[in-house]
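Quick one - first record:
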Amino acid sequence: MAERGVVVDHSTLHRWVIRLVPLLDKAFRRHKRAVGHRWRMDETYIRIRGKWKYLYRAVDTEGHTIDFLLTAGRDAAAALRFFRKVIRHHGAPEGVTIDKSGANTAALAVLNAGREDDKRIKVRQCKYLNNLVEQDHRNIKRRIRLMLDLSRSVGHRPFCAGIELIHMIHKGQYQHPAGDGMSPAEQFYRMAP
């Protein structure tokens, strides 16, 4: 905007993000590439308004982001809410690799309790096999750390969703019917309402 001589206040951009990111997210999910059946799931912490919040994230074996959820707590209820959200949007996985977190284990136990033996989600607990999602956290945390306004922000969920959305576009997870070979910027412009 500054290159074009347009002066925009940061609060205007903040309002645009809060208003437009849900619309962009909806448009993105219509054309999102299918994800794999083996997931790596982990949570990371970020500081928002002086308090720790937890960002639950899952990636498949190719490193594509499956979904994310920002919560206030890190407990079995939050992990269960995340898993239910992901399964509602993408279906149940064959297996999930998690670290030694008791909350994640309890959530998966609740999900598996209502399933038949052949449809249970296989749980693998090994912190070293979760390096794929741990490394993926770095991109999100690096962007959030630079956003000083997020510490004072009221609408922090749309900011996190916007960061995740741009990250998924850069990974090549957007499959628009207009054609392949588009740059991330062209893909973003195709999504814009």
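second record:
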Amino acid sequence: MPAIGVNSLFKSYGGVHAVSDVSFEVGRGDVFALLGPNGAGKTTTIEILEGFNKRDGGDVRVLGVDPGERHNQRWLRTRIGVVLQEMAVESFFSVRQVLERNAGFYPAPRRVDEVIELVGLCDKAQVKVKKLSGGQQRRLDIGLGIIGNPRLLFLDEPTTGLDPAARRMTWDLIRTLSEQGTTVVLSSHYMDEVEALAQHVVVLAKGQIAASGTPWSLGGREFGKVVISFMLPDGVALADLPVTPSRCAGGKVEVDTDCEIEVLARLTNWSMATHHSIAGLSVMRQTLEDVYLKLTHDAEQRAEVVVA
């Protein structure tokens, strides 16, 4: 049984269809990313999964139960964790006090010391929340999300306000939770974060699924054109290269191709035969951000045509 199963989800507000015919599954222990611009239906979908919003149609199962049924919600609250963009935390309590208080809400919480270490706040355990930096408060938010040892964790922009080191530490924490069997539903505007963590991605636009797949394959990304770039070796003219450059500026050669294996073979064979080293060789496909922007833009365009 998947951790989450959504089939033909529908939700409207008055005459506005916030979510229409949305279906997807999330495997247990997976990191799943739900993406979409403002107004795409992402927040509505997540609130329905969390049991905070009622759907108008379709079928939803979270950890095997319907989150919309009132008698399931108490059971579900003890098995899911939620980290919102902004969390309300008592500013005059210390980090340890806040975590100890929240741990008491769950039947089998994680040890407070373990959570403090996981989120990197060992040296701030006795510090009051109001004296924490923005990044430290965000780490505490994540700690509050995992203190109940949830089977399912919802993370809304978990690394906003974190410095690069803290972001990577949070990524490692999410991977660890996933490896230990916790299912993670991630919402983020950082595409590098999604690509680093998620096994599956769904992109919502105008209340419908614009694309679904792995970060690598989303929107046909794995089959698109690539740019192969390298530095022109000293003493070599462009005409001497075994491939036809698309651009060359400042000694950097770029080749646009959809046959990267063939182009790379030509380059490496030529390099070995002529003893010219190829510095800075790289292969770059369109980024996940490029794909995301195109998918959401195309959906917006189609919606405008329908309205017109």
